[in-house]
Design brief:
By secondary structure, the protein is of the alpha+beta class. 21% of the residues lie in helices and 36% in strands. It has one domain.
């Protein structure tokens, strides 16, 4: 009986390995009408959110600008690191003492809102409402795995890995400068493709001890989730 079970498990793994299950590139799938995107660029920002007073988040992200229309920008929040004084973030991510993958996604969305608005600020007078606007989008797969990492400097980092999926979860921010109110007008749109069961046997690996995430080296993996469907928004 035990031998039969082992053979069955190996057969399932073999079959899944032959299926073309790849994490779809949501940024290419939803190109915002741009026919020619520029190269991805790496950057980082120290983010302080009103939701978590007294806590600084160090956020690594990549972005690319449409070569034919600079008003279109795609951004990917690659990882978020928290340091001392961030108990409120830890409580948010672990409401019951266990890491909640959907809340990690929401934290990354909060970072995306902050970073995109910060980047728009010096350009605001180039995009006057209602005839002009700048659009930032952030896409992830609906199925994700979350990795909670301890870095060699003692900080805690959160990295998400898209699992094999054909479906995407996206957030779009539209900005323009309102001359009547002397404020930035903001419109946010959410995109959630159909629900699906995640391929739990095809979960990607977390960064391993000794690996580098941005400029931080992984000391250990504190916890990791399986592949879960958690396309949620605040």
């Amino acid at each position: 009986m035990k031998k039969l079970l082992i053979i069955s498990v190996l057969l399932i793994i073999f079959i899944l390995s032959k299926i073309d299950l790849k994490a779809v590139n949501c940024f290419d799938k939803y190109s915002m009408g741009c026919q020619n995107w520029g190269q991805w660029n790496y950057s980082s920002m120290l983010v302080i959110l009103a939701d978590f007073p007294g806590c600084s988040l160090f956020v690594n992200y990549t972005f690319r600008v449409c070569s034919t229309n600079s008003a279109l920008v795609q951004m990917n929040i690659t990882d978020v690191t928290i340091g001392a004084g961030c108990a409120s973030v830890t409580q948010f991510l672990k409401p019951n003492g266990t890491l909640d993958p959907s809340r990690v996604r929401r934290l990354k969305q909060k970072a995306f809102r902050h970073i995109s608005e910060t980047l728009f600020e010096p350009e605001k007078y180039n995009y006057i409402c209602p005839n002009s606007k700048k659009i930032y989008t952030f896409w992830e797969g609906t199925c994700q795995k979350v990795c909670e990492l301890v870095y060699s400097d003692g900080t805690i980092g959160y990295v998400t890995k898209d699992c094999e999926t054909d479906y995407c979860c996206g957030i779009e921010r539209n900005y323009c400068w309102n001359q009547n109110t002397s404020q930035i007008d903001k419109v946010e749109n959410h995109y959630s493709e159909q629900y699906e069961e995640c391929h739990i046997l095809m979960a990607p690996l977390c960064p391993q001890p000794g690996d580098w995430v941005g400029n931080r080296q992984v000391s250990s993996i504190s916890s990791e989730s399986g592949c879960t469907n958690n396309c949620v928004f605040d």
